[in-house]
Amino acid sequence: MSLTAELSPPKRGSLRILHVSDVHCMTDNLIEVLEKESYEIVVASGDFECVDTAEALTRARAPVLAVTGNMDGPAVYRKLKALGFLLDGRVANFEGLLVGGLGGVDIPTATARLEREIKEHGNIDVLVSHHPPKGVLDEIYRGKHIGLEEVKRLVGLASPRLHLFGHAHERRGHLVIGKTTYVNAGPLEEGYYMLITLGGEIRVEEREL
Predict the structure, then answer these.
(1) Does residue 179 belong to any structural domain of this protein?
(2) Is residue 5 one of the residues assigned to a domain?
(3) How much is the pLDDT for 122?
(4) Would you say residue 190 lies in a domain?
(5) In whole angstroms, what is the distance from residue 103 CA to residue 195 CA?
(6) What's the pTM?
(7) Positions in the chain short of pLDDT 70
(8) Which domain holds residue 118?
(9) What local confidence, expressed as pLDDT, does residue 12 receive?
(10) How many structural domains does the chain have?
(11) Which of 32, 35, 91, 127 has the fewest CB within 10 Å, making it most exposed?
């Protein structure tokens, strides 16, 4: 199932989100998670690498939103766009929730587009990106931080309740800073993913195949 920006169904009390990231051509892992878990929307934070891995999102039993990752080439971008899943540089309305996306392909252009949309909408509820914001769940070997200032700036501009991302494989987890819950799904390539219940409160469940 695909989701477009025009979708605007009634609001619900809570929403169960399956969050995956960094699949890196491990298509079987993605299919296994899509088939075994219970969810109402799938959010994918990029780095599919293989076109057939991106296409496997069609196995989902719910709407899908996805951004590209820094390892995704033009073919993956085109496939996600053709399927109606691509969220790079735009804001979608899902069940009354505003969801904005920033992928890892052509970050300057996508950032500028998303900033314009956020300013039109005001605050958004959920931000989806491939990269973490600078300094948040972004630390890898030898203490190196690989988050982006651009993403940090978008969080400040959008004030989301929930920020979903990946990229930093070593920093899987979640934390709350101010009004925002940050979630790094970890690499599904290694079997890691998250289930999130977004309602009056936000509950994050760390899962592993």
Answers:
(1) yes
(2) no
(3) 84
(4) yes
(5) 21
(6) 0.92
(7) 1-12
(8) 15-208
(9) 57
(10) 1
(11) 35
pLDDT value of position 11? 52
pLDDT in tens, 123-146: 899 999 999 999 999 888 877 888
The pLDDT value recorded for residue 30 is 98
Which residue carries 């496997």 as its tokens?
56
The CATH number assigned to the domain holding 101 equals: 3.60.21.10
Question: Is the residue at 159 inside a domain?
Answer: yes
Nearest to 21 by CA among 39, 48, 41: 48
H/E/C letters for each residue in the chain? Answer: CECCCCCCCCCCCCEEEEEECCCCCCHHHHHHHHHHCCCCEEEECCCCCCHHHHHHHHHCCCCEEECCCCCCCHHHHHHHHHHCCECECEEEEECCEEEEEECCCCHHHHHHHHHHHHHHHCCCCEEEECCCECCCCCECHHHCECCEHHHHHHHHHHCCCEEEECCCHHHCEEEEECCEEEEECCCHHHCEEEEEEECCCEEEEEEEC
